[in-house]
Amino acid sequence: MNSRIMKYAFIALALGWMGLAMAAPDVGATQKQPLNVHAIVMFFIFVMATLGITYWAAQRTKSASDYYTAGGGITGTQNGLAIAGDYMSAATLLGLTSLTYFQGFDGYIYCICFYVGWPFIMFIMAERLRNLGKFTFADITSYRLDQRQVRTIAAIGSLTVVVFYLIAQMVGAGQLIKLLFGLEYWMAVVIVGVMMVIYVTFGGMIATTWVQIIKACLLLGGGTLVMLLAFSKFGFNFETLTTQAVANSKKGLALMGPGSLLADPVTAVSLSLGLMFGTAGLPHILMRFFTVPNAKEARKSVFVATLCVGFFFTVVALMGLSAITIVGTDPQYFEGSVVGSRLLGGNNMPAMHLAHAVGGNLLLGFLSAVAFATILAVVAGLALAGASAISHDLYANVIRKGQATEAEEVRISKSSSLILGVLAVLLGIAFERQNVAFMVGLAFGVAASCNFPVLILSMYWKGLTTRGAIWGSIAGLVSAVLIVVLSKAVWVSVLGNKEPIFPYEQPAIFSMPLAFFMAWLGSVTDSSVRATREKEAFEDQYVRAQTGFGSAGAAAH
Amino acid sequence: MSTAVYERIRKNPKFDELVAKRSRFAWMLTVIVLGIYFIFIMVVAFNPTLLATPIWEGGTASIAWPIGAGMILLFWLMTGLYIRRANGEFDDINSEIIKGAIE
Fold it and tell me: Which ipTM value was assigned to this complex?
């Protein structure tokens, strides 16, 4: 039955796309860029290919394990690419190129902060995650604690991260597609929402993983090509590149060192903590550790992911530096053709203009299509993680107390992804004119403060009890959200107040220690019978974490 | 059933050996990575001009870039180092322990 629905969806979508491609020129009058035919054709090919994969994946998705974690049958290398794909969003490509374009080395500092979580995940988390987890990271935090309470709070943490991240992606998608494809904002948001739901409901983790792998390869390949073409204009000489960049930038020599972006130490440290440990608390990334058969493959995936992410960030930084000279001195990329005025299409455009400058409309079209594909793949991963938190944690284990059948659980997950899709589209449209930059920061802040501390304590600290886990999670969640809301990013920029109540925008340096402290306090003051039992259960969990004996999937494959 | 197996594994001296060796190695690498990284962040926060020093006397390109790229490369190589021992030496001990426990 699934496959028949899938076939109809496929045809409907194909027709819809043709209609859209033809209808679009009529509405392309106002602020938008002219319709980008190359980009639309290439994106259309991507969509068709991924729908084909989804169709194939739907046939192979039979059990709950297939649906949530591709049956644990993804290899380390494949999973590494998929993890890297989840991590390299359109915001990375456009935002970090733009940051390097305007701020120079500050852009690369951001890249390094984003990157350094990976070795940490490798050494401290990868094998334990794989050995203890099954479908969601709450499987680990609730392993020896109270299922209902701990899963509820973990699901709230996951959904908070997923929703904030989704809004940021949706708004980014709408703006980007308006610019790159010449389509209406709402159309772009609806397309992203519809595709996301199709991938997740029909293809589950198998489709989501393969969409992510394809996109990771396209993004790495496309980015590298643009970077090489751009770097060749400087004879592949870094000294020439930087000399010209410094000569052509308003910031001059300031490009070559850390600048104003991280001027105060509290912000610098807080940002780096948030990005680093936030990575280790993102539900859609954590879920990927359960798609490989064993700890060996889990380690391999982090190795591959670390390579891809590190390489890509370096490519992005070089793109940004090259764009300073190549894009920054070319009047055609500026409003009113005046060098030094606003960049056409806004501040996030250096990567796209660079692609056009070095490879013409064809390369611009390709990179635009890749950027759109990137958003699709990332939101699909997010939606699956969110839907799993609802179905596996909230529905199956909290509401039905573990009595739900696999089929019921998967059905709930599919309806949840539909609801998340609708919600994402509505929020995406509602937030069209808002500055949503803070939402990614908020997602990382909550991931680092609500999910990460309890996750790491549950794996490493025998003394953690249910009460500690709840206190820690709530303290992290509330303080991270509160700090962001009271800081300049929301209090002034969004709510329009004059002065921020809290002076720092990055919550991690305050909210993370608070979460750890509350988790500790809640645990050590807990002398209940349950707490004693929970501490005793650590021994078995510890053996499983270390050896992988008894871990999910290991027997089946 | 599995509790009995876990008990047997825990009593195996090889288990202690595995945990001790692997944990020591993992924590050592973590401390190195975090140490280098936080030194870098501290330099960014407290002495940014140091990083703006040109690589070559009179040149433009600063040492910040190769330091950044070097950190990325080094950290990746360290994950490679970990995976080599973990997937080889440590996993061999691991499978021996499990085999001993279920027999």
Answer: 0.93
